[in-house]
Amino acid sequence: MRSLGIFALQGGEVQRMKTLQVVMTVLILFFLASFATAQSQPQLNLMPMPASVQPGTGQLSINQSFSVTNTGFHDASLDREVQRFVTQLSRQTGIPFRSKPGSTPTLEIHADRGREAVQKLGEDESYQLTVADSGAKLTAPTSLGILRGLQTFLQLVQITPAGFAVPAVTIKDQPRFPWRGMLIDVSRHFIPIDVLKRNIDGMAAVKMNVLHWHLSDDQGFRAESKKFPKLTGMGSDNMFYTQAEIHEFIAYAHDRGIRVMPEFDIPGHSRSWFLGYPELSSGAGPYTLEGGGIDPIMDPTRESTYKFLEKFIAEMAKLFPDPYFHIGGDEVDGKQWDANPKIQEFIKSRGMKNNQDLQAYFNQRLEKIVAKNHKTMVGWDEILHPDLPKTIVVQSWRGQASLAAAAKQGYRGLLSYGYYLDLMWPAARHYAVDPMADAAATLTPEQKNLILGGESCQWAEWVTPENIDSHIWPRNAVIAERLWSPQEVKDVASMYRRMNAVSYDLEWLGLTHNSARIEILQRMAGSTGVDALRVLADVVEPVKDYNRWDDAKDPIDFHAPLTRMIDAVSPESDTAREFGDLVQTFAQSGYKDQAAEAQIRGYLTTWRDNDARLHPLLEESSLLQEDVPLSQSLSALGAAGLQVLDYLDKGQTAPDSWKTQEMAVIDQAKTRQADMLLMVVAPVQRLVEASAGQSQHN
Amino acid sequence: MRSLGIFALQGGEVQRMKTLQVVMTVLILFFLASFATAQSQPQLNLMPMPASVQPGTGQLSINQSFSVTNTGFHDASLDREVQRFVTQLSRQTGIPFRSKPGSTPTLEIHADRGREAVQKLGEDESYQLTVADSGAKLTAPTSLGILRGLQTFLQLVQITPAGFAVPAVTIKDQPRFPWRGMLIDVSRHFIPIDVLKRNIDGMAAVKMNVLHWHLSDDQGFRAESKKFPKLTGMGSDNMFYTQAEIHEFIAYAHDRGIRVMPEFDIPGHSRSWFLGYPELSSGAGPYTLEGGGIDPIMDPTRESTYKFLEKFIAEMAKLFPDPYFHIGGDEVDGKQWDANPKIQEFIKSRGMKNNQDLQAYFNQRLEKIVAKNHKTMVGWDEILHPDLPKTIVVQSWRGQASLAAAAKQGYRGLLSYGYYLDLMWPAARHYAVDPMADAAATLTPEQKNLILGGESCQWAEWVTPENIDSHIWPRNAVIAERLWSPQEVKDVASMYRRMNAVSYDLEWLGLTHNSARIEILQRMAGSTGVDALRVLADVVEPVKDYNRWDDAKDPIDFHAPLTRMIDAVSPESDTAREFGDLVQTFAQSGYKDQAAEAQIRGYLTTWRDNDARLHPLLEESSLLQEDVPLSQSLSALGAAGLQVLDYLDKGQTAPDSWKTQEMAVIDQAKTRQADMLLMVVAPVQRLVEASAGQSQHN
Q1: Which of A83, B185, B203, B213 has the fewest CB atoms below 10 angstroms from its CB?
Q2: Which residue, among A557, A7, A26, A13, has the nearest Cα to A292 in the 3D structure?
């Protein structure tokens, strides 16, 4: 609906938009009704949840005779997609398909028409999927909708007592927002094309449709320019994408229904430009990628800067067919401008008040260059300035208020605040962030239509090709759901259940978010098993927000190994969440639920005994020595928790002295260790407090 | 030494050979002395164990400044190898190397000369590696020796309390046998090139040097022939290697010091040829890849057969540069010959006695064609016939007796008996098989020199690209050791310790023998965790030898999914071996070793409780239902074992009635279930017998 709404606005057909809003409301009500019905049916592991799901009766068997027929539009791109779909289904089920000639196909697909050669913002992605025990049918106005529907079909496949099957269901689906993206920073750590490709596959699986490619920053310039070869020649440590690779990658993404928008971040975050072209900077140079000193900024006062950008942007505008072009524009601290008398003179002579006005001047000139190349300029919050035309798009890392402010001035916007994957937040926290919430909720319908969607952001200070997948997945799937599914889809328990299921699916695509964790632990452990190490790694999380930076030396060495436990562990501990839920259940039962208690006891026993198993290994490995206190804390928590269960079982209250002693253990366990947090402290504390007669039942 | 010996024999320099044998003896004594010394040093995880290892003092740190310099011969192939070595070391350690210009290199390599363009049998693979805390030096007569030495260096790297390091050591090394191969059958199940490539990497890591590529068999013809396109066009289900792929693959293997010898198995095992060319067969046809009925055989009585083979072998001889060409020749059951009156008439008219004589006639003619193309013919045991020239090589699947018989007649031979990976034997059983043992031990030195080495065999009836690695690795590494290391290296405990270490190393190369197991279990489990499933899978093994075939329908459907638990589990259970060792330790202590008892109790408790955790999942998945009795048996064993520990702890003898009852449980647990065996039955039985006062303290 949202995508159609945007078309309406751009075309000025307000009446059509209003009609659609009514239709949308009806659909949402329909969705809520069908969702309620679905609760009593076998749960479907769909993420993002479709707009409408109507369960049926029976199931469609997936066996060796599975086949697909296309009765509608087809082209080479759709044919490839169907082939990939069949390969993926075969991989997921382990079944080599061999349908007999002449047999009835299992799945019929039918698109009315093809796709745009360059995928458009708001291009129709809707589809309808009907599955009965006799067969399935997937229809869509465009082949892009077929792509989305095939991913839904893959998620519906499950193992049953009677083999692999898809439950009977009718799904009508379309996205809530037309712009559902992920930013990947490839500057701070270079991420090779094959790693990007498997992440494109993951994005397609959860129906995201924009890769925002953060191609340059202080630490590296990653896209080949033939006009300015020193950009990568001196600014990339020889780690960059050739134009041929970029071209092929964009085609790869297009095949999967994903736009690729480049970002070249200027005038700040641009040190890597100045190794080859120091004359672009506002300071004297020379510059190194390692950095240090004040952050260099591009010089907006020289005409030569614009001549350079004219040529550069013309070249990149051809290389990247997407109509949107991101120029960054964030975090210009202005110190190099302050330190340059010529620049300060320029500001005064033009009647500008400050550096912000200078950046606005720069952005205005930049926007003209971008527009001349038939592109729409996109930038971060800071570019918002009344002198810029209403065609630009503002990406907000500051929040819905910033987005709403832009919309009120008539600017289109994207939300990234709340979707920063590098902050190590739990999935539920990202899931709770809605582009239309808070300040945005008070916008007029017309203003709301200016909010195009959002983007998750994978900044790459602390990731390598080895562990980037585990920083993105599976949490990125819940952001994808927030941007695709109706706003009303927000049950957290359902989200976690479905996220865990989709996480397994994503491994079948080749993503390594689960497998690489074991690999990294294995490296730390050397030639021994990692079972005991996993017990510890499974209950810790990295410190949150930018707290990891506290211990890091400035400037950060982006070439240092990322091989510590913090680099291996998941941003969110499934085990800790499950344990917390168990303690919650146990507490709600008045500490009487024996099944919950048995499971809690199992965890606590494993933890209590783990340090004895693990300690020798921790001492033997330079990469693990820092984790000794963490392991000791976990075992202490296990012992404390077991003591509580004994008190509870005997109906005793723990002595105050014991409690005081254990609270000291808990306080110790709460402290950050080796840049990580033990995530089972809070539920153990709850048990300890309960043993002392202070429990709250719920 | 062996390789030099062969050169000597071929050159007729008998005196030189004798001198070398003396040197060999001295080296072996030296090795044994140094090996004894090494026992008190930190154990090195080398496999194959080098001929001589002399430990030093201190260690060489591997850090960001690591670099390699080559002071000797170099060419593009060696440069690529060094680059791969550095990449692999970086991957294993997680360290991005950034040595400063002008700093001292960590590792110096020096080869006196290059390699042959087509790798020769017996080409010098020796090397010497010296590691001190100040640096390492690797020298070799040829760049092929450098390849071998770099793999040793990689295996020496370990994590220590002071970071990654290589212990100081002096290694002098060369292979015992010049032919150390692995056969991979790609006919029964097609194995894509990328899967073969990662197995080539694995072979290189354990210093194997021949890939025996079993390219055709009844179920599929896998190598493109441009002269006879219907071979793959009708005989491959469209799963085959193009000539371009083959060419590139051979170069890939050559870069890693591995010869590629093709096998086209005739006149039996050749049904796939006859779909496109039924006139080659001894029956009427038509034929299908699925088979059924009697096994078709090539017709050796028609001249047109030889005309076909002339053209075909000429084409393949060009495609495969290796001087050895394997023609199969095994298991010709002769039924189709018996059923063909013209063929029987041919036998009589030529004065032949039987089908064996007919095959010998065929082989003689075949050998001439092979020789005309400047290749040496290799075949299985059955080709051995006095009419064939002494240049051929006989590969024995029947045993050392067969090999010795050939050697006595002056034929060179290879041992594969005892190295069949598809028989699901434990590593120790393969490890115990020596080409020079049994009948071969009685050969004269000259005859012994005719035994070139051996090959492991990975027949592909029960593997897919997904699980082939876990059927090959890590067991193949111990066969590689048997063929490389001195005969005296045979301590089984040391072998298992080193095999487990090298198994982790192999995963860094991209082999999936560990990771794919989890993947397959995950498929069976659907969207839930696999922890409880792993507990079961970790203590079972596939049935041994060809017992899996008992339950298989004839003809076997080679397109059926291989997605059962038997397809996921390891051929050898590490857990069962460890548990058996623990029970052994416990028994030897007179059932007093408390540490062993605690570990035994831990295992037994997990097993006892596992069926309750696992049962719901088993019922929900069609792929797991057959495993219900197995899971119940494991829990029953766990309960029985725990009861024994209780009796022992109390100093009680178990009642006879209890023992009778538990022996019934044990008998049940011993039966084959879902084509698998529970491998912890024997140690639990030992406990039960001990509880009844029947223990043997040995």
Answers
A1: A83
A2: A557
The contacts of residue A476 (CB under 8 Å, 6+ apart) are: A182, A202, A203, A206, A208, A421, A456, A458
In angstroms, the CA B620 to CA B405 distance is 56
Buried b (16+ CB within 10 A) or exposed e, B200-220: bbbbbbbbbbbbbbbbbbbbb
Give, in order, the Cα–Cα distances in Å from A609 to each of A200, A541, A605, A615, B649. 42, 21, 6, 11, 21
In 3D space, the residue among B150, B171, B127 whose CA is nearest the CA of residue B79 turns out to be B150
- Determine, for residues A621 and B159 on separate chains, whether the beta-carbon distance falls below 8 Å: yes
pLDDT digits (tens, 9 = 90+) for B80-92: 999 999 999 999 9
Please tell me the distance from the alpha carbon of residue B552 to that of residue B508, in angstroms, as a whole number.
Answer: 36
CA pair distance A538, B529, nearest whole angstrom: 14
- Alpha-carbon distance A29 to A52, whole Å? 10
Alpha helices by DSSP H, listed for B105-259, are 143-156, 193-205, 230-235, 243-255
Map A598-609 to HEC letters: HHHHHHHHHHHH
Rounded to whole angstroms, the Cα distance separating A72 from A583 reads 54
Measure the CA–CA gap between A499 and A553, rounded to whole angstroms: 36
Q: What is the CA radius of gyration of chain A?
A: 27
| Amino acid in the structure at residue A322 | D
DSSP string, A501-512: HHHHHHHHTT--
* Residue B295, min C-alpha distance to chain A (Å): 24
Two tokens, residue B371: 């020789």
Q: Residue B115 and residue B381: Cα distance in Å, rounded? A: 32
Give the DSSP per-residue string, B117-133.
SSPPTT----EEEEEET
**CB-based burial, A531-555: b 16+ in 10 Å, e otherwise:** ebbbbbbbbbbbbeeeebeeeeeee
Token pair belonging to B440: 């071969």
Q: Tell me whether residues A561 and B162 touch, CB distance under 8 A.
A: no
Cα–Cα distance, B2 to B20 (Å, whole number): 9
Instruction: State the Cα–Cα distance between residues B496 and B481, nearest whole angstrom.
Output: 12
Residues in chain B within 8 Å Cβ distance of A159: 523-526, 620-623
- Cβ of B620 within 8 Å of Cβ of A466? The answer is no
Tell me, what amino acid is at A88? Q
Phi, psi of B419 (to 5 degrees): -120, 20
Q: Are B380 and B147 in contact (CB under 8 A)?
A: no
Among candidate residues A13, A331, A488, A619, the one labeled active-site is A331
Tell if the pTM clears 0.90, that is, is over it: yes
- Give the pLDDT confidence of B201-229 residue by residue, as tens digits: 999 999 999 999 999 999 999 999 999 99
Structure tokens at A61: 């068997």
Give B325's DSSP letter.
E
d(CA A228, CA A240): 14
The Cα A349–Cα B399 span in angstroms is: 95
Question: Which residues of chain A does B163 touch, with a Cβ-Cβ cutoff of 8 Å?
Answer: 622
Q: What is the per-residue pLDDT across A423-475, written as a single tens digit (0 to 9) for each?
A: 999 999 999 999 999 999 999 999 999 999 999 999 999 999 999 999 999 99
**Closest CB to B526 among A64, A159, A518:** A159
Q: Active site includes B331?
A: yes
Characterize A188-202 residue by residue with b for buried, 16 or more Cβ atoms within 10 angstroms of its Cβ, and e for exposed.
bbbbeeebbbbbbbb
ipTM: 0.90
CA dist B11 and B54 (Å) reads 33
The rounded Cα B657 to chain-centroid distance in angstroms is 47
pLDDT tens-digit profile of B598-652? 999 999 999 999 999 999 999 999 999 999 999 999 999 999 999 999 999 999 9
